[in-house]
Write a structure and sequence with these properties.
The chain is of the alpha+beta class. The chain folds into 2 domains: 87 residues, Phosphorylase Kinase, domain 1 (2-Layer Sandwich), CATH 3.30.200; 137 residues, Transferase(Phosphotransferase) domain 1 (Transferase(Phosphotransferase), domain 1, Orthogonal Bundle), CATH 1.10.510. The chain is built from 9 helices and 10 strands. The strands form 3 sheets. A 5-stranded antiparallel β-sheet has the order 1-2-3-5-4. Strands 6-8-9 form a 3-stranded antiparallel β-sheet. A hairpin with a 5-residue loop joins strand 2 and strand 3. Helix 4 packs antiparallel against helix 8. The relative contact order is 0.10.
Length: 242
Amino acid sequence: MSEIESRICERYDVKKRLGKGAYGIVWKAVDAKTNQMVAVKKIFDAFRNQTDAQRTFREIWFLQKFKTHPNIIALLDVIKAENNCDIYLVFEFMDTDLHRAIKKGMFGRDHQIRFITYQLLCALKYLHTAQVIHRDLKPSNILLDTEGRAKLADFGLARSVLQCQLDDCDPALTEYVATRWYRAPEILLGVKQYTEVVDIWSLGCLLGEMILGAPLFPGTSTVNQLECIMAALPHPQIKGKY
């Protein structure tokens, strides 16, 4: 298996590849020492530029801080690749994600939706109490197991509330904060300073998608996304005369 180093294969018995994207590859594996099922994620050229380096650092740092919470994915190990460019992250294994579950129509009962929503609220309360905003809630970042337990993943775009209030968020990075369908209106409008409420908006979009079985606001562009939101909300009432 040329995509993964032999020394990683010696420690982890790789079973199959789960997915591949622009940032890396994820495998299902078994820890040879503990016999625990894990997910091994290889991030390509993790420090190729400032943006990628910050994203990699944030994901590792935040997950190391929050890994004890039952509704946040546990980061078990961090391994530097031999080429000093790639990096391996080892996580606890989860069976699927919310995107695949919705696509397969797995939410036939209300109590399943309530249980997942409750768990995500617990995770967000934990983060927000620590003054951290996730900023990238979307179905593919919500991992699920066969018993319906949900865990929040991918902290590459997380920021502290203080940073978002005192510093101007990098516009180039902010554009990628949350997939468009789950972005809060203030992010769509280009507001540079925002709070934890952007995560609550995203969670509301996830809840609507679980109920409907389809995205709540499937905008085709930033402007169309705002139009979808405005079409679903009552228009503001303007009092008085000019």
